[in-house]
UniProtKB/TrEMBL annotation:
Superkingdom to which the source organism belongs: Eukaryota
PANTHER family: ENDO_EXONUCLEASE_PHOSPHATASE DOMAIN-CONTAINING PROTEIN (PTHR47510:SF3), REVERSE TRANSCRIPTASE DOMAIN-CONTAINING PROTEIN (PTHR47510)
Name of the protein described by the UniProt record: Uncharacterized protein
Length: 110
């Protein structure tokens, strides 16, 4: 807004200026970053991360192979991975609630 409240600037109205700035920002973002598509399912647990999905895939492959020993090992690894992922997710939630900030150690003096 200008002092007279008209919304006009010297070069034109504020909407035109606003759209040109937004277009510039979006083209800058597109040229610098890459776009990645992530598929989220409505029934996916929040602690399901890449590691758990890889362990789940390994367990399914071991099951289809028919080798009981490999399947047993894959199941145990999946169980450990799920526990680790849940612990990390819960710890992250507690840190957000308690406003926890990790202490950055100062570099050693020479």
């Amino acid at each position: 807004m200008t002092a007279d409240g008209s919304g006009k600037t010297r070069g034109g109205d504020i909407e035109c200026y606003d759209s040109s700035v937004l277009d510039y920002i979006s083209t800058s973002i597109d040229s610098v970053t890459t776009q990645k598509q992530i598929t989220m399912y409505p029934n996916q647990k929040p602690w399901m991360n890449r590691d758990v999905r890889l362990l789940l895939k390994a367990r399914n492959i071991a099951f289809r192979s028919g080798d009981a020993q490999t399947y047993s090992t894959a199941r145990a690894n999946l169980k450990r991975g799920i526990k680790k992922a849940k612990h990390g997710y819960n710890l992250k939630g507690i840190q957000v609630i308690s406003n926890y900030k990790p202490i950055n150690p100062s570099p050693p003096l020479n």
